[in-house]
């Protein structure tokens, strides 16, 4: 049974980026801020790699880049209300600003999406008029690759019991165990 939960976790994550309106296509990414607190934000989940790493896009000048350069630990939280399924993943993030993986995703940014990465100033800078955002030809794009170390599966169903499992990656292998919900 635990193997079924493990497979369901990765199946949902694999389908999410390419399935329109899939609840897992949007998740909450948490990082450690520079003042010792936690910073959470919603992000688009872009892809699950064949190595079971999760990919996200960001502006290379965003605060999360500074946070991740100081502490690469991060977590994401997914929720599917139809399945009543919550997936929590904790791991380490690698920032890509060049290379093949970065290039493969950089070419996918087009149209309206370019505006997410070509502002004159970094995200979070104070401005007087939100309609007066200056754009440049520069593309400030970074690819974030989350390498999972811990995955928690929680099925919030009522009957007969909620299901909770913990998957921990040790020496390249996943250890699997049930938890009290």
TrEMBL record:
Record Pfam families: PNPOx_N
Superkingdom of the organism of origin: Bacteria
Swiss-Prot/TrEMBL keywords: Flavoprotein, FMN, Oxidoreductase
UniProt GO molecular function: FMN binding; pyridoxamine phosphate oxidase activity
Cofactor(s), by name: FMN
The Pyridoxamine 5'-phosphate oxidase N-terminal domain, residue ranges: 25-154
InterPro entries given in the database record: Pyridox_Oxase, Pyridox_Oxase_N, Split_barrel_FMN-bd
GO biological process, one term: pyridoxine biosynthetic process
Name recorded for this polypeptide: Pyridoxamine 5'-phosphate oxidase
Species per Swiss-Prot/TrEMBL record: Antarcticibacterium arcticum
